[in-house]
């Protein structure tokens, strides 16, 4: 039953005030909790926040009569944003603060995905400015989640796997006990960690009538986050499948999809992988809608995946070291020690992650757009004014886990800044612009080398081109399927391989504006199919707005010197850029 519209408006308008009062109550409780082990007051506050979020969710689901009676997108986003204040205050709670804050941020993201309260329909001509507030809010939500995750990573001494992040949870009477858990262990004891389960069917066991396209279609349909698929027909179907119980594969460890298996998935990893879609309307085709979307927790999700890799290696190495020391003291023969150690398997992290300090690297988006008092005393056309940090664009490189900074130049265009952690206000004589190759190569390598005294090249840390990059057509088809098909358990691995630049590597993807998926050569040099390549849109970039991402891609691609480029590969680009975003 839909909520009364007047009641819905009351809830929406009063939410910020309630959240301010909740924040004060949380701060008082955190002071009391420092001298007592009583958890009842903490759980009572948590339930209030969950209830307030749920009330807003229901209010935004009300049937408003027409657009004029609906709250504006700005009001709705401001209301959602008001929940960040009490949730951040939860971090001050001793022992449990970081965990409960992260859980509530995930719940907020899940509620927002289910009922954002926004129109989510934009005109192509005004898409960038209309979606700026939306992308800005989700970036703030993502940044807020990163803070407790980073703190828990440090407190765990780099052992935390964040399994509790990858789970769905809806707060109702049945699940409220789980929602009020104060630690990952308490949540696990309540059987509250339920992520995706993957099931596979070997090709030999599949129906011969099912061709590969049917398998692909089935897999795509299972990429949804439907959780309640436990009816008898579904259970009967899954009886033919085997539950996968191993670790998630990694392409850089040679764990690629060489098997012709059919996959199904059940369950959900919850809001951490949440995808928000919106419609783009074209004036020339009013009846047609182009869909676009994005992950609302993109950086937090990547942080957890990175932490899992480093945690696996950290724990595995410690186990090997401990066993080796005990075995030596007990006089165990070397061959027996080595045989036993071979059963204690672990994978090293991706080479670039090996030396990367995750907590240091994953910093929040720099704040821009505020008034700058220093610029009041400088000429408007001066370099110091044009490169003001409040006017800069910052774009996160998902592969490097670092920010790129862009400033306006003398020609009122955007240029890439050479400075790491740029503070802006560059003087007229300061050489801050990356203008061409090989300067861009030196810049990108210096960024990748931060914190790694042993850095040699992008190739050595896994960010260079794959070798050999060009294969015979049949072998290339097999490689493309194995690396980028992304079925079942291989989805994350496939996305990761694309993120670091695909076959061409990161620098190639950035400078050429595409990610290579296939590069082949034929046997017959006279054939029109002697050689070729296929590429998709690059995915290394992530920013607070579509415009900022577009700036990063265009500016860096303009640094490409085609005549002198040794890595140029002409490819069929299978993506449609946003033509209405001129830079």
Task: Provide a descriptive summary of the structure in words.
There is one protein chain. The chain is of the alpha+beta class. It has three domains: 5-192; 197-266, no CATH class; 365-583, no CATH class. Helix content is 42%, strand content 13%. It has 20 helices and 15 strands. The strands form four sheets. A five-stranded antiparallel beta sheet has the order 10-9-8-7-14, covered by helices on one side. A four-stranded mixed beta sheet has the order 11-12-13-15. The protein is globular. The protein starts with a helix and ends in a 10-residue tail after the last strand.
List keywords for this structure.
583 residues, alpha+beta, 3 domains, five-stranded antiparallel sheet, four-stranded mixed sheet, 20 helices, 15 strands, globular
């Amino acid at each position: 039953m839909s909520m009364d519209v007047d009641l819905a408006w009351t809830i929406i308008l009063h939410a910020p005030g309630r959240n301010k009062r909740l924040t004060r109550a949380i701060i008082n409780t955190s002071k009391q909790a420092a001298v007592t082990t009583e958890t009842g007051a903490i759980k009572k506050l948590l339930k209030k926040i969950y209830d307030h979020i749920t009330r807003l969710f229901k209010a935004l689901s009300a049937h408003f009569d027409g657009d004029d009676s609906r709250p504006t997108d700005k009001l709705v986003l401001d209301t959602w944003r008001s929940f960040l204040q009490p949730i951040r205050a939860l971090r001050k709670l001793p022992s449990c603060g970081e965990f409960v804050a992260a859980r509530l941020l995930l719940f907020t993201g899940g509620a927002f995905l289910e009922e954002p309260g926004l129109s989510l329909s934009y005109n192509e001509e005004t898409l960038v400015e209309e979606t700026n507030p939306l992308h800005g809010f989700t970036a703030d939500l993502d940044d807020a989640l990163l803070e407790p995750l980073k703190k828990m990573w440090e407190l765990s001494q780099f052992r935390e796997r964040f399994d509790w992040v990858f789970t769905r949870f809806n707060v109702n009477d049945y699940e409220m006990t789980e929602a009020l858990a104060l630690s990952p262990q308490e949540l696990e004891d309540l059987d509250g960690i339920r992520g995706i389960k993957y099931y596979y069917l070997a090709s030999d066991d599949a129906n011969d009538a099912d061709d590969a396209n049917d398998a692909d279609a089935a897999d795509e349909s299972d990429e949804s986050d439907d959780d309640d698929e436990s009816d008898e027909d579904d259970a009967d179907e899954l009886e033919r499948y085997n539950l996968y119980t191993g670790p998630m594969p990694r392409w850089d460890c040679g764990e690629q999809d060489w098997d012709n298996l059919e996959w199904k998935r059940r369950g959900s990893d919850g809001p951490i992988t949440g995808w928000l879609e919106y419609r783009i309307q074209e004036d020339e085709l009013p009846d047609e809608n182009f869909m676009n979307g994005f992950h609302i927790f993109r950086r937090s999700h990547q942080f957890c995946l990175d932490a899992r890799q480093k945690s696996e290696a950290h724990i595995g190495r410690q186990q090997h070291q401990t066993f080796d020391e005990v075995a030596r003291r007990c006089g165990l023969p070397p061959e027996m020690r080595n045989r036993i150690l071979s059963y204690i398997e672990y994978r090293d992290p991706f080479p670039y992650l090996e030396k990367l300090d995750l907590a240091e690297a994953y910093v929040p988006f720099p704040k821009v757009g505020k008034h700058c008092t220093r610029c009041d005393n400088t000429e408007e056309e001066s370099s110091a004014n044009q490169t003001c940090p409040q006017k800069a664009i910052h774009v996160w490189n998902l592969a490097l886990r670092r920010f790129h900074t862009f400033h306006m130049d003398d020609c009122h265009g955007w240029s890439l800044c050479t400075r790491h952690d740029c503070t802006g206000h560059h003087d007229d004589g300061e050489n801050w612009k990356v203008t061409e190759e090989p300067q861009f190569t030196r810049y990108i390598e210096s960024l990748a080398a931060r914190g790694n005294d042993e850095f040699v090249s992008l190739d050595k840390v896994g960010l260079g081109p794959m070798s050999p990059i060009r294969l015979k057509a049949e072998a290339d088809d097999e490689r493309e399927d194995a690396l980028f098909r992304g079925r079942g358990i291989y989805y994350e691995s496939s996305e990761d391989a694309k993120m670091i630049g695909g076959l061409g590597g990161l620098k190639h993807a950035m400078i050429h504006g595409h990610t290579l998926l296939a590069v082949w050569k034929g046997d017959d040099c006279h054939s029109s199919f002697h050689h070729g390549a296929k590429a998709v849109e690059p995915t290394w970039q992530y920013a607070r707005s579509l415009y900022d991402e577009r700036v990063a891609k265009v500016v860096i691609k303009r640094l490409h010197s085609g005549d002198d480029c040794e890595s140029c590969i002409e490819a069929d680009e299978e993506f449609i850029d946003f033509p209405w975003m001129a830079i």
